Amino acid sequence: MSKFDPKLVSKKVSPVLNKIQKSKLANGISGGMMVAMPVTLFGAFAALFLNLPIPAWKTFITSVGIASALNTAIVYSTNFLAVIFGATIAGSYAKQYKEDGVFPAILSLVCFFIITPFTPGKTNSISMQWLGAPGIFSAMIIAIVSTRIYVFFKQKGVTIKMPSTVPPVVSNSFSSMIPGFISIATFLIISAVFAHTPFKTMHQFIYSFVQIPLQGVSGNIITIIIVWTFAQVLWFFGIHGTLVIYSVMLPIFTAMDAAQLSAYSAGAALPNITGRAFVSVYTMSGSAIGFTLLMLFAAKSKQYKTLGKLSTIPALFGISEPLVFGTPLVFNFKFAIPFIFMNGINLGIAYFLTFIGLVPRVAGMTPMSGMPIILSGLMEGSWKIAVLQVVLVALSTLVWYPFFRKADKEAYELEQNKDGLAD
Fold first, then answer.
1. Is residue 398 a part of any domain in this protein?
2. Which whole-number Å values give the CA distances from 397 to 82, 190, 289, 342, 383, in the listed order?
3. Could you tell me if 336 and 235 are in contact, meaning their C-beta atoms sit under 8 angstroms apart?
4. Mean pLDDT of 177-194
5. Same domain (yes/no): 287, 410
6. How large is the average pLDDT for residues 27-56?
7. What confidence category does residue 365 fall into, taking pLDDT thresholds of 50, 70 and 90?
């Protein structure tokens, strides 16, 4: 029987996963969403301040007009994310092809509004229905397609070429004209076609046949556990599992969190249990904070005491790299079981307690890098979420303990033997 070689597996799998992670499409979408992060955070904080469960605070912000201002902020951030993502993703995707992102972003907005229904009259009005969470997937598709059409024809030379004496600003405008017209014409045709279908709009079609099914699959806890266990398997082989998974899941999770935050802002029932916020809140630092605490407070060996001092503070702030690569947990079979499976255990428990109503659903706040545990739970709308974070850390401490104890004992004995030889 051939011996299992984890490094050989990593060598074969890494190129495929890296290709997915580094693809122009994945980077265009994820990069565009990162560009929009300040706006999504702004909307999240506005919703948080608007819905703080303190009667005196609510009375105060209503009486002085702060509540009205916060509602306006939410409308043009959280409830406007489809428009924002359409522009930022188009700009980011264009840059993957070494093109300036400004015009593709504008072009994407034009195409988005072409397929968005409006009510004609003395004051033409556009419904907000598709400008927020329900329109995010169609906005992403429009951004990618309109930008790809634009880039294709521009790089093929299907442009209006001006003499070299013409200023670059003018020349660039004319070179973008024909590719831009083709993109716009494409979505004018698409809009006209969908108007003669039962769906009436491209938005409704994508929402019904793409967004809802994908969110249904991604909202299934079994899928979530499998996906995040797989992410830990990738981490074990030295591959950044979180980035690989988010290169596929981020658009779906973002739409789910946007719907969650929109409902939270309006004081309505929250539609989802899972999402990016759910995963981030309940799997901080790979669910290994308990391991760092054991090293810090219970280690006998100098090796693990030192690792505990170096990794605990970053882990409490959601930064797991010192722990993963410093211990190391990569290719370390001593800790493989808790490292790979603890995320799934935590997510399963959190889902069950949320499902039965013991803990409220997370509000869908955009996860902030470096947000410490407990505070990240409080930001999701309830102290109960923060308490559950602490409970899960305590549970992870128990799960990690036997593996830590054995490894620490071996390291301590090795250190003692070395000290004895030195004497």
1. yes
2. 41, 55, 8, 10, 21
3. no
4. 94
5. yes
6. 86
7. confident
Structural domain of 279: 230-422
Whether residue 400 is contained in a domain is answered as yes
Both 209 and 234 in one domain: the answer is: no
Residue 250 corresponds to which tokens in the numbers above?
A: 């981020």
User: Is position 69 within any domain?
Assistant: no
Among 156, 179, 213, give the residue marking a domain's end. 213
Residue 68: is it exposed, middle or buried by C-beta count within 10 angstroms (0-12/13-18/19+)? exposed
Q: Distance (Å, rounded) from C-alpha 232 to C-alpha 241?
A: 6
Closest C-alpha to 343, from 242, 220, 218: 242
Q: Give the mean model confidence (pLDDT) for residues 10-36.
A: 76
Q: Do residue 272 and residue 416 come from a single domain?
A: yes
Number of domains in the chain: 2
Specify whether 134 is located in the same domain as 234. Answer: no
- Please give the Cα distance from 257 to 150 (Å, whole number): 31
Q: Which of 22-36, 128-142, 238-252 has the highest mean pLDDT?
A: 128-142
Spatial distance between the Cα atoms of 286 and 296, rounded to a whole number of angstroms: 17
Flag whether 45 is in a domain. Answer: no
Give the torsion through C-alpha atoms of 76, 96, 109, 130, to 10 deg: -60
**Residues 321 and 399 reside in one and the same domain:** yes
The pLDDT of residue 94 is above 90: yes
Residues 175 and 251 in one domain: no
pLDDT band at 1 (very low <50, low <70, confident <90, very high): very low
**What is the average per-residue pLDDT within 349-353?**
96
Structure tokens at 403: 């593996």
CB of 28 closer than 8 Å to CB of 93: yes
| Span 392-410, average pLDDT | 95
**Helix 136-155 and helix 241-266, axial crossing angle in degrees, nearest 10:** 130
**3-state DSSP call for residue 282?**
helix
- Read off the tokens for 66: 């702060």
For residues 267 and 170, state if they share a domain: no
Are 328 and 289 in a shared domain? Answer: yes
- If you average pLDDT over residues 197-205, what whole number do you get? 92
Q: Which residues of 368-407 are buried (b: 16+ CB within 10 A; e: fewer)?
A: beebebbebbebbbbebbbebbeebbebbbebbeebbeeb
Which pair of structure tokens corresponds to residue 388? 């559950």
